[in-house]
Design a protein that fits this description.
The chain has 17 helices and four strands. It has helices spanning 21-33, 55-60, 67-93, 97-108, 111-116, 123-138, 142-152, 162-176, 186-207, 224-231, 235-261, 263-267, 270-288, 294-297, 300-311, 314-321, 325-328; strands at residues 8-9, 15-16, 47-48, 216-217.
């Protein structure tokens, strides 16, 4: 495979440029689902892992617009779903109206929302799935969250972050002595723990037989080249700018909880598991691929939850209590 990546000509003749390999792969899959033979696709090869992320291109192929516009519209819709789910999770979490407004603003108006929410990628779809999944976890609908995970693998494999989060939530319910029915049940937790392993494995195996056939694999192994590239560009700076408004308060809240409850209890809480899992993902990407703020996005629901807890405590909480909510939204 000798790809020449730079421009993409849509089915109505519009030239999209510049494009990355991700853009070209997803737009090519939209064209494929509309009936273009694989040999005639503008992408010379379809690669792993992109072929496993076929859900968004498949939905976009049903729209009556060119490949790029269709992908952008689907992604914008996914962004709206994510915002609704995150706000619903905050409401279920029981935060004050003032904290609700502040955290909702930080979630909705940020680098990723402004720069990526209508791109020809799949990241808004992942954000929507994880946000809805987190809302289900907050509502203690853990089996529904696992079911959502099982059907969402084709959106992007990073939705698997929900599996350890669901497991952590199940552990806390079992440890506290209650489940959805109000009864202590080691059997229920054991079943849930087994499902958190079996469901992702079976779902990955099943969905891998549904997507397009790959011609090759895109190299994503750790390398010194990737590390030096990310250190020598603005990638790291943009990640900091995009993630700081939610991740810095969330990490401060993590520190506070470790001081109060100890490190083990803190890092095994559902939101902490999700937050630390995304941080680990970004460290992996830092040494294996082009680092982008998009990779932090999947952790926004967990970071928003912990940021809400942080804002509701101490001097900041008292300060927000003196501000009328209508002033926060300019009313």
């Amino acid at each position: 495979c000798t790809e020449e990546i730079g421009t993409y000509v849509t089915d109505d003749g519009r030239v999209v440029e510049p494009v990355t390999v991700d853009d070209e792969q997803y737009m090519s899959m939209v064209a494929m689902y509309r009936g273009t033979p694989v040999d005639d696709l503008q992408s010379e090869c379809l690669y792993v892992p992109f072929v496993g992320r076929f859900a968004i291109p498949f939905v976009a192929a049903q729209l009556p617009f060119d490949e790029a516009v269709s992908l952008a519209l689907v992604n914008l819709t996914m962004m709206m779903v994510a915002l609704w789910a995150m706000l619903a999770a905050l409401r279920s979490q029981g935060v004050t109206p003032r904290v609700f407004v502040v955290v909702g603003f930080l979630f909705a108006v940020g680098w990723n929302t402004l720069m990526v929410s209508a791109e020809v990628l799949t990241d808004p779809g992942v954000l929507a799935v994880v946000s809805v999944g987190w809302w289900l976890v907050v509502r203690r609908r853990l089996w529904w969250a696992l079911a959502l995970l099982a059907v969402s693998i084709p959106v992007r494999e990073t939705v698997l972050i929900l599996a350890p989060v669901v497991l952590a939530a199940g552990w806390f319910q079992y440890r506290d002595g209650t489940d959805d029915s109000g009864r202590t049940s080691g059997v229920r937790f054991t079943s849930l723990a087994a499902a958190c392993v079996v469901v992702p494995v079976l779902s990955l195996s099943a969905w891998s037989r549904v997507g397009p056939e790959a011609d090759a694999s895109w190299d994503s192994a750790p390398s010194v080249t990737a590390l030096l590239f990310n250190l020598g560009t603005l990638s790291f700076l943009t990640v900091v700018v995009a993630g700081a408004p939610l991740f810095v308060p969330a990490l401060l809240q993590l520190r506070n909880e470790i001081r109060r409850a100890g490190w083990f209890e803190t890092v095994t809480r559902p939101a902490s598991v999700g937050l630390l899992g995304v941080c680990a993902l970004c460290l992996w990407v830092f040494v294996s691929a082009d680092l982008s703020p998009r990779f932090l996005w999947v952790g926004f629901p967990f970071a928003a939850s912990m940021t809400a807890d942080w804002l509701g405590e101490g001097h900041l909480g008292a300060l927000l209590d003196r501000v009328r909510p209508e002033r926060l939204v300019g009313a």
